[in-house]
DNA sequence: ATAATTATTGCTATCGTTTGCATTTGCGAC
DNA sequence: GTCGCAAATGCAAACGATAGCAATAATTAT
């Protein structure tokens, strides 16, 4: 697969090595159909070989992120998930703060917004790393929220 | 100050208590002129009273976030900073991935973009929690980047 | 003012992630 | 193939952040 061949190519270019551990982690990422936590990924890696250490999984994920083959998404509450993006068009991610679903969407609607930021602030936004928090279609429909959450969502003070 | 009075009001409303520790943390946040890490905040808190535990600082920051008086910004690399926003208009944050500077900007240019997301994806974006990664004016000018970083920033593979 | 109630604290243990280091192993040179 | 070197690994220790819990202290009722 070309995702693997790109990985191998990148490794060789940098003088890094192709190891069984790295192949396993990449293949597991391929199997996932939604972004997965380290815990999930490590569990699946261990099904293949229980000799692989979790620190190697972390290190491989870092490497894949450097290669832009994987992105990580912060779900808040110290919850982070990883997603293989190598084969896809660049896109941004809508992250539901309620159910943690991640939706990849076309990057183009954001480009005029990015242009405004550049014009007004001289800031060059990196839309491929942009994760947008909010409520997905499903969760938006569900209005039953706990009292605690409701009362906390009040307007900010004035001074 | 009205930020403090809002805090006290919110505490009373929920049956929570105003403690010296909470007052200290809030006053330290007031002193900071840029977003600060827990490490920095805790150091300053200890200058006031070294009896305050770091877990209390964490808990107070959580509480202030629930009250929408404080926001936290993920700088990546497991680096998180906190910023007092109680007195400000809601705005979004431009986060420089190079120097970690955080710039607060007006939320309005993002609203048409948010409208597009709602229309196309049924997703209700929360712009007040939106942090946009990219390069700030200063860092955009500096083209001298390490070879490692340059070679890593290559287009994604096709398949 | 005093007592009762219960939120909050500091301490400790724990969890998830990272780092240091000796050992292993991939990979190029021979 | 074998050798040599440096990258990568597994292990264990360290680190930042969190949770449990007994002791403390802020608020309410008396």
Structure notes:
2 copies of one chain form a homodimer. Chain A has 159 residues and is of the alpha+beta class. Helices cover 45% and strands 18% of the residues of chain A. Chain A is built from 7 helices and 6 strands; from the N terminus they run ααααββββαββαα. Chain A has helices spanning 2-14, 20-31, 38-48, 54-66, 111-121, 137-141, 147-152, and strands at residues 70-74, 80-84, 91-96, 102-106, 124-125, 131-135. The first copy, chain A, has a 3-stranded mixed sheet with strand order 4-3-6. Chain A has a two-stranded antiparallel sheet with strand order 1-2. The longest helix of chain A is centred in the first third of the chain and has 13 residues, at 2-14. The N and C termini of chain A lie far apart (57 Å). The structure holds a DNA duplex (30 and 30 nucleotides).
Number-wise, the strands of chain A total 6
Helix content of chain A: 40-55%
Shape of chain A: globular
Low-confidence stretches of chain A: 144-159
User: Mean pLDDT of chain A, rounded to whole units?
Assistant: 85
Biggest β-sheet: strands ordered side by side in the sheet of chain A: 4-3-6
Question: Quick summary of this structure?
Answer:
Two copies of one chain form a homodimer. By secondary structure, chain A is α+β, with helices and mostly antiparallel strands.
Summary keywords:
homodimer; two-stranded antiparallel sheet; alpha+beta; DNA-binding
């Amino acid at each position: 697969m070309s995702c693997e061949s790109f990985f191998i190519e990148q490794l060789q270019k940098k003088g890094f090595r192709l190891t069984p551990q790295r192949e396993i982690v990449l293949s597991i990422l391929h199997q996932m159909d939604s972004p997965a936590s380290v815990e999930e990924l490590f569990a699946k890696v261990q099904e293949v070989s229980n000799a692989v250490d979790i620190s190697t999984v972390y290190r491989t994920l870092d490497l894949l992120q450097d290669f832009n083959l994987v992105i990580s998404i912060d779900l808040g509450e110290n919850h982070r998930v990883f997603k293989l993006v190598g084969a896809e068009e660049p896109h941004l991610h809508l992250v539901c703060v309620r159910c943690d679903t991640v939706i990849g969407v076309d990057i183009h609607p954001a480009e005029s917004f990015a242009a405004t930021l550049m014009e007004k602030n001289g800031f060059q936004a990196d839309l491929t790393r942009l994760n947008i928090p909010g409520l997905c279609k499903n969760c938006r429909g569900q209005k039953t929220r706990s009292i605690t959450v409701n009362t906390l969502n009040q307007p900010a003070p004035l001074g």
